[in-house]
């Protein structure tokens, strides 16, 4: 997927969350540990929620905002998607899975923060601020869910 505009970034982010959700759900079917299967399903559900929220941003944002160019960040810092997540998630422990998922979110947060720092138009500033807050809040929820699960 070629990412050039803010809408492309949102579509790419949706796709990233969709792929992660599908991978987590698939891996939950093949993991030996019941606790890990529960975690993988929990994480998959959270990724699906993010997909819906991001689609809402796309639907509600003006075409002017969505057509804002954002090439420069991706030219300097391409997003790295770990290879073979399925194999990793089916053999990893809970801590390693959380670390991998949070690392994916951290990349997205860094992208959104950079876009926010470069934005000059108030509506783009507002959208990128909301996106940063969304991803940060989501990452925090994931870690809290993990901590609750660890207490069980």
Which keywords apply here?
mainly alpha; single chain; 80% helix; Ferritin; 7 helices; 152 residues; elongated
Characterization of the model:
There is one protein chain. The protein is mostly helical and 152 residues long. It has one domain: Ferritin, core subunit, four-helix bundle (Ferritin), CATH 1.20.1260.10. The chain is built from seven helices and no strands. The protein has helices at 6-28, 34-60, 63-66, 71-76, 85-91, 94-118, 122-151. Helix 2 runs antiparallel to helix 7. The longest helix has 30 residues, at 122-151. It is elongated, with a radius of gyration of 16 Å. It starts with 5 loop residues before the first helix and ends with a helix.
- How many strand units? 0
Task: State the CATH superfamily name.
Answer: Ferritin, core subunit, four-helix bundle
Helix tally equals: 7
- Classify the fold: give the CATH topology: Ferritin
Shape: elongated
Oligomer: single chain
**C-alpha Rg, in Å?**
16 Å
- Mean of residue pLDDT values: 86
The biggest sheet amounts to: none
Query: First CA to last CA: what distance?
Result: 41 Å
How much of the polypeptide forms β-strand, as a percent range? under 5%
What would a concise description of this structure say?
The chain is mainly α and 152 residues long.
List the helices and strands and how they pair.
Elements: H1 6-28, H2 34-60, H3 63-66, H4 71-76, H5 85-91, H6 94-118, H7 122-151
């Amino acid at each position: 997927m070629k990412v050039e505009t803010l809408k492309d970034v949102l579509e790419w982010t949706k796709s990233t969350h969709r792929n992660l959700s599908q991978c987590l759900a698939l891996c939950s079917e093949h993991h030996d540990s019941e606790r890990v299967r529960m975690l993988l399903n929990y994480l998959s559900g959270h990724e699906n929620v993010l997909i819906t929220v991001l689609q809402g941003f796309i639907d509600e944002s003006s075409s002017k905002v969505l057509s804002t160019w954002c090439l420069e960040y991706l030219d300097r810092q391409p997003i790295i998607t770990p290879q073979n997540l399925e194999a990793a998630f089916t053999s990893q422990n809970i801590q390693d899975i959380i670390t991998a998922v949070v690392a994916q979110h951290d990349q997205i947060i860094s992208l959104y923060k950079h876009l926010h720092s470069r934005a000059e138009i108030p509506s783009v500033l507002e959208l990128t601020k909301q996106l940063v807050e969304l991803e940060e809040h989501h990452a925090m929820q994931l870690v809290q869910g993990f901590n609750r699960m660890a207490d069980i």
